[in-house]
Design goal:
single chain, mainly alpha, Growth Hormone, Chain: A, 0% strand, globular, disordered N terminus
């Protein structure tokens, strides 16, 4: 055996030390699902974890930075955030197509770098116009990163990308929580220096995520059919229908963070501290159960069934939460906890189904473009969710909760039908 062969064998064969404590620990962590089994999956997990810490920092502190440090009116800040989000939604499909043609890793890395620079530029904001400018650039970068991250997750997560996506989702919940807790320090200090540090810390997190992403292997580009459309996602009627249905079901994301706190404080006798506790119950369940619940959701039919189960769970959860209205304090606490648990199960089923279908019903050569379209439904849902829930659940009360539950139930029951429609028509489409 020559020297090069010996060297190659030594790189592939673990040494006794590698099979020692560190190797055993790594094997144990993989076996228990605490870390992914391949280096590429682990690197991408760390990159997204760091990215989501930055997201948590920004979500928790940005609005206060704009109002208390920059001195802009709340109305201007709200308008700027909304306008920038809409621009990001519109950009989802074209930047998704860019990811298909240039490679999702490359677009993801560039998008996160641009996002970091735009966020860092927020420390220079001194007017409404400059706020709009930097936020629009940041939202465009977020749209590009979202469109590219989906195909990257799907490819790296093979042969079971939904399981890997569930792992990332659980990890991201922890990361956002860590970022939000860190932002609390700046909010408590309430000084210009503290807020600037928060914004720059967010930018640093994004740059660190981009640096980690450079260590992820590049994903091969799938050539588009010569006779196919440049914009197949927009012409795929079943997929557009799925996007709309998923957007309806995504309204559930606003239930626990928007409607439930207002309901607990204004319509139940539960203690005020229970608002935070109810969210903590949801977060803990997502972290602990997301991977387990997603097992078996590895094809379109299974994802359709998961969406159907999610719809049933949401209706039951809405009914339980509605029943807490006017109940004695301890009864309200118990009923709301049950409602949160059932709602979280629906959330986990919905998340697994949503991810599997968003890529399972999209052609290989246009994963980014389809991902951009799918994100539009979720973005619109996040925009209309709070006013809709405020009108029905808080304004109408118990019957409103049941109407929302029925809407989510109906959407979940229709998803399997759209899946069958899509599978019937996909083979006939040239892409």
């Amino acid at each position: 055996m020559n020297t090069s062969e010996q060297s190659q064998q030594s790189e592939q064969t673990p040494t006794a030390g590698e099979l020692g404590g560190e190797g055993r620990l790594s094997s144990w962590l993989v076996a228990h699902g605490l870390i992914p089994e391949t280096r590429a999956k682990r690197v991408f997990a760390v990159a997204t974890f760091v990215n989501q810490i930055g997201k948590g920092l920004f979500i928790a502190g940005a609005a206060l930075f704009f109002t208390r440090s920059v001195g802009l009116p709340v109305s201007q800040v709200g308008f700027a955030l909304g306008a920038a989000a809409l621009i990001g939604l519109v950009a989802g499909i074209p930047v998704g197509r860019l990811a298909d043609r240039r490679g999702p890793r490359e677009v993801f890395r560039l998008a996160v770098i641009v996002q970091a620079l735009a966020v860092a530029g927020l420390v220079l904001v001194n007017s409404f116009a400059s706020l709009i400018g930097f936020l629009c650039v940041a939202e465009l970068a977020i749209a590009a990163g979202t469109a590219a991250r989906g195909p990257l997750t799907r490819t790296l997560g093979a042969p079971n990308p939904t399981h890997y996506r569930s792992y990332l989702r659980a990890l991201n919940n922890i990361a956002v929580g860590c970022g939000a807790l860190a932002a609390g320090v700046a909010v408590q200090l309430d000084t210009r220096a503290a807020y600037v540090s928060l914004i720059l810390g967010t930018a640093v997190m994004f740059l660190a995520s981009a640096a980690l992403a450079s260590r992820i292997p590049s994903v091969p580009i799938v050539p588009a059919p010569a006779a196919g459309s440049r914009w197949p996602a927009l012409k795929d009627r079943p997929y557009v229908a799925l996007t709309a249905l998923d957007g309806i079901m995504t309204i559930q994301n606003q239930v626990l963070i928007f409607a439930l706190p207002l309901w607990i404080i204004g319509h139940t006798d539960a203690p005020r501290w229970f608002v935070g506790a109810s969210v903590a119950v949801n977060t803990a369940l997502v972290v602990c159960l997301q991977v387990r619940v997603s097992r078996g959701v590895d094809n379109n039919a299974a994802a359709g069934r998961a969406a159907r189960r999610a719809g049933v769970a949401f209706l039951l959860a809405m009914a339980l939460i509605a029943a807490a209205g006017g109940a004695p304090g301890w009864v309200a606490v118990v009923v709301v906890v049950l409602g949160v648990v059932v709602h979280t199960l629906g959330e986990l089923w919905h998340a697994a189904a949503s991810f599997e279908l968003s890529f399972g019903l999209a052609p290989e050569h246009a994963q980014g473009q389809y991902s951009g379209l799918f994100a539009i439904g979720q973005g619109v849902s996040n925009a209309i969710g709070p006013p809709l829930l405020g009108l029905l659940c808080i304004g109408w009360g118990g019957p409103g909760w049941l109407v929302v539950g029925a809407l989510l139930l109906l959407a979940g029951q229709v998803v399997p039908l759209v899946v069958k429609w899509s599978e019937r028509t996909r083979a006939l489409s040239p892409g």
